[in-house]
């Protein structure tokens, strides 16, 4: 731990345990050599002031440090500070309860009811710097349920109902239960959206996002066709090949959550990411359909940059865009005034694979150190 | 010398610089300027293919002729004529093949198996246009196909006619959407189902489990349809699609391979007066000549096989089956079932039918205009005629001969190289 505590109030305040000050919700500040604000924007020698678990000020240390109230603890970090990472989706904390297998249509189930924030998978995400994610169902049902935006500590829910989780692909389409075919799944969904009742009506009104899990190209094509027909600006889930459809996705106002690139992965994956970026299709990385674990987010963003993606897009794919696709874009994913103080302190540039995560704050509370 | 040199330099350079600034019309240009402001459609690209023989599937063979393609359609078919320097010359041209039973589907995911009477299911919702088999079909000369659900349901759903190439979207490839309804006789609809003893275990605990159960389900579906007409209380999902079959608006293509299944299909047609019915994979159709002729049913033959047996219900298909149907004047089409083997290709099937005694012209019709007619798309594809889609197969020699090669395929006026 290379962080040192400075205090304007002098030696006495230095004796008080720093974490104790935070847990009481008292204001504090963190100075950092680099603050990664959002996208590619970096503040050199910046300072973030946290009050009541939110970011109250962000700026250059030279401008703000002089005006701090007396006695406010200041953490001096000689590395990088950024927003905590956001996974655009994930099933962490659900264990085997990610799908209710009693029917292919369980659209009214609230996945947050199954969320166990103490589950090891949530801790693993936290240790990788992930401070919030879009909690979603598995892909076992055509209409799996309603997703939420959650924090990776304490079971805190940012937004209880963010999206309806659909799947038009084999995990949901299976031989021993209705529907057994793509045509069956599509006609069932067409029927429900035409009736526009309950959650389907809420989706059509724009009160809820809708995600559609697909994999193969013909499935992506089908999901685009379905979205255009119903007028939905759907978020494709797990659609790593979506870049091949970038123009059509852009026209339809759709976005994409994919798994992050992995070391030794296929080239079409990174090509697909760049096509989406060129066409201006919002995309982010998720963990729900990945076997690679939470650490794949930051490494995947690095690999995308290495393959040619611009840094800003890569960083947004694991922070601000991920947050907005997870339904929490107004409160997490950026170092900005009014946003939750979900912060990650790094030994260096977080997009460098050699960089270590040093501390994580969620809602202004120090959660983990030295991982 | 010096003067001449500078003069020639002027001649060479001056028009080029002038051209760069403002386009000029040289040669016998019209006196009036061309109205560039009027939105004129770009003239369609024309190209010409000449051949020693053009088999149009719409009349006599043209010996030494040309096909002129303008945009996506055929602009002219003429005897004689030169293709010119930019044109192509080949030994023979036939229409692109039309196949009604390509079986290019997503197997289990192509049919809704949660029920048996599923008229509303669309085959186009359950297919993979990125599958390599599409390229194989196109390169082997098949330019138009009928896409159907598999025959695992008594009534499987709606088929569509698609081109085999172009952008991989249904919108770009569709020739006729919801062209026919697909049904099934024989063992396929009942396999996998099991009887209910005690409590049903899953959605396969249902009728039919036998051929006679399938036949019962077919008849019930049509009786239910008759009951639904004009009675809102009796209407069910897709009853109107079933009605369109009963009144002849939409052909009913049913799979039936063995003799007893073909008989059953004929009896259904006659019982309900279904005007337009086609029996697919009908290996043993030749065994019921009297019934077949009486019913007015059309036939799609499965691919010939060296063993004389088909994969579907082990139907017996003799080499001369096509010839026998032709003698009966029963409309029939050949099919490949999408086989990847050379033998399975539709062009080879026409060759086998000829070997079985069928005439060249009738074999050509059985892979072009007849299937186009049966699917209701003969106004667009199936023959080489002015105004029809420019879908052509270009041959190195006599079409369907074992020593001939397909040297090129034209789809919608575009040359698809092999």
Question: Could you describe the 3D structure shown?
Answer:
The complex is a heterodimer of chains A (371) and B (418). Chain A is of the alpha/beta class and 371 residues long. Chain A has two domains: 4-84 and 334-369, Urease, subunit C, domain 1, CATH 2.30.40.10; 85-325, TIM Barrel, CATH 3.20.20. Helix content of chain A is 27%, strand content 29%. Chain A is globular and about 65 Å long. Chain B is an alpha/beta fold and 418 residues long. Chain B contains eleven helices and 17 strands. The longest helix of chain B is centred in the N-terminal third of the chain and has 20 residues, at 2-21. The N and C termini of chain B lie far apart (57 Å). The chains are: A alpha/beta (371), B alpha/beta (418).
Write a short abstract of this structure.
The complex is a heterodimer of chains A (371) and B (418). Chain A is α/β, with parallel strands linked by helices and 371 residues long.
Per CATH, what is the topology of the largest domain in chain B? TIM Barrel
Rounded mean pLDDT of chain A is: 92
Helical region count of chain A? 12
Instruction: Look at the structure and give the mean pLDDT of chain B.
Output: 88
Got a strand count of chain A? 16
- Apparent shape of chain A: globular
- Please name the CATH architecture of the largest domain in chain A: Alpha-Beta Barrel
Helix content class of chain B = 25-40%
What share of the residues of chain A lie within helices? 25-40%
CATH superfamily of the largest domain in chain A: Metal-dependent hydrolases
- In total, the number of strands of chain B is 17
Question: Which fold name fills CATH's third level, the topology of the largest domain in chain A?
Answer: TIM Barrel
How much β-strand is present in the residues of chain B? 15-25%
Shape of chain B: globular
């Amino acid at each position: 731990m290379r962080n040192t505590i400075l205090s304007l109030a002098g030696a006495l305040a230095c004796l008080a345990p720093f974490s104790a000050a935070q847990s009481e919700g008292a204001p504090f500040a963190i100075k950092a050599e680099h603050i990664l604000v959002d996208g590619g924007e970096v503040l050199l020698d910046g300072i973030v002031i946290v009050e009541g678990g939110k970011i109250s000020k962000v700026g250059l240390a030279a401008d703000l440090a002089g005006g701090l109230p007396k006695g406010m603890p200041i953490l001096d970090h000689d590395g990088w500070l950024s927003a905590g990472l956001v996974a655009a989706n994930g099933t962490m904390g659900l264990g085997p309860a990610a799908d209710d297998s009693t029917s292919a249509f369980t659209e009214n189930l609230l996945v947050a009811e199954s969320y166990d924030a103490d589950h090891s998978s949530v801790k693993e995400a936290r240790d990788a710097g992930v401070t919030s994610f879009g909690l979603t169902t598995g892909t076992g049902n055509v209409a799996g349920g309603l997703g939420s935006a959650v924090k990776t500590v304490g079971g805190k829910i940012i937004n209880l109902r963010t999206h309806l989780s659909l799947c038009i692909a084999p995990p949901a389409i299976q031989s021993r239960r209705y529907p057994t075919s793509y045509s069956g799944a599509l006609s069932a969904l067409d029927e429900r959206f035409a009736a526009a009742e309950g959650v389907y009506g809420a989706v059509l009104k724009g009160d809820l996002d809708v995600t559609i899990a697909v994999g193969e190209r013909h499935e992506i094509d089908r999901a685009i066709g379905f979205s255009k027909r119903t007028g939905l600006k759907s978020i494709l889930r797990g659609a790593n090949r979506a870049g091949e459809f970038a123009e059509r996705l852009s026209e339809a106002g759709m976005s994409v959550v994919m798994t992050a690139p992995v070391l030794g992965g296929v080239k079409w994956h990174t090509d697909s990411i760049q096509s989406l970026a060129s066409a201006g299709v919002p995309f982010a990385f998720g963990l729900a359909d990945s076997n690679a674990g939470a650490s794949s987010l930051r490494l995947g963003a690095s690999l995308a940059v290495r393959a040619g993606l611009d840094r800003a897009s890569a960083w947004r794919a694991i922070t601000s865009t991920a947050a907005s696709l997870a339904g929490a874009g107004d409160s997490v994913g950026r170092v900005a005034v009014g946003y939750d103080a979900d912060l990650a302190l790094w030994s260096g540039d977080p997009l460098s694979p050699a960089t270590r995560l040093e501390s994580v704050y969620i809602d202004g509370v120090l959660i983990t150190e030295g991982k | 010398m010096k003067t001449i040199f500078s003069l020639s330099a002027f001649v060479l350079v001056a028009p080029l610089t002038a051209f760069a600034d403002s386009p000029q019309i040289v040669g016998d240009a019209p006196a009036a300027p061309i109205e560039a402001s009027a939105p004129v459609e770009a003239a369609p690209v024309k190209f010409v293919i000449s051949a020693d023989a053009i088999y149009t599937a719409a009349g006599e063979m043209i010996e030494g002729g040309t096909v002129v393609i303008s945009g996506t359609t055929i602009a002219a078919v003429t005897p004689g004529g030169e293709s010119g320097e930019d044109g192509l010359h080949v030994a023979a041209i036939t229409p692109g093949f039309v196949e009604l039973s390509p079986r290019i589907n997503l197997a289990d995911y192509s049919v809704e198996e949660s029920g048996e009477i599923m008229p509303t299911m669309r085959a186009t919702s359950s297919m993979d246009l990125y599958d390599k088999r599409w390229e194989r079909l196109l390169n082997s000369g098949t330019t138009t196909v009928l896409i159907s659900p598999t025959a695992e349901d008594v009534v499987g759903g709606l088929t569509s006619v698609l081109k085999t190439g172009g952008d991989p979207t249904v919108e770009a490839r569709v020739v006729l959407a919801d062209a026919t309804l697909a049904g099934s006789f024989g063992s396929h609809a009942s396999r996998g189902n099991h009887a209910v003893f005690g409590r049903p275990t899953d959605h396969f605990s249902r009728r039919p489990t036998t051929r006679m159960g399938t036949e019962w389900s077919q008849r019930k579906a049509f009786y239910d349809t008759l009951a639904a007409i004009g009675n809102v209380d009796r209407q069910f999902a897709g009853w109107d699609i079933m009605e369109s079959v009963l009144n002849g608006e939409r052909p009913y293509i049913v799979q039936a391979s063995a003799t007893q299944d073909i008989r059953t299909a004929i009896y259904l047609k006659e019982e309900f007066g279904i005007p337009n019915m086609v029996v697919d994979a009908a290996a043993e159709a030749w065994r019921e000549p009297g019934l077949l002729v009486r019913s007015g049913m059309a036939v799609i033959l499965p691919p010939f096989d060296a063993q004389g047996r088909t994969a579907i219900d082990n139907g017996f298909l003799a080499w001369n089956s096509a010839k026998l149907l032709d003698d009966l004047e029963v409309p029939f089409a050949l099919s490949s079932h999408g086989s990847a083997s050379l033998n399975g290709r539709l062009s080879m099937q026409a060759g086998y039918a000829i070997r079985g005694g069928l005439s060249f012209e009738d074999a050509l019709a059985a892979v072009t205009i007849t299937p186009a007619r049966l699917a209701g798309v003969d106004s667009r594809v199936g023959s080489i005629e002015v105004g029809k889609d420019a879908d052509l197969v270009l041959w190195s020699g006599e079409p369907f001969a074992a020593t001939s090669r397909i040297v090129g395929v034209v789809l919608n006026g575009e040359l698809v190289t092999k």
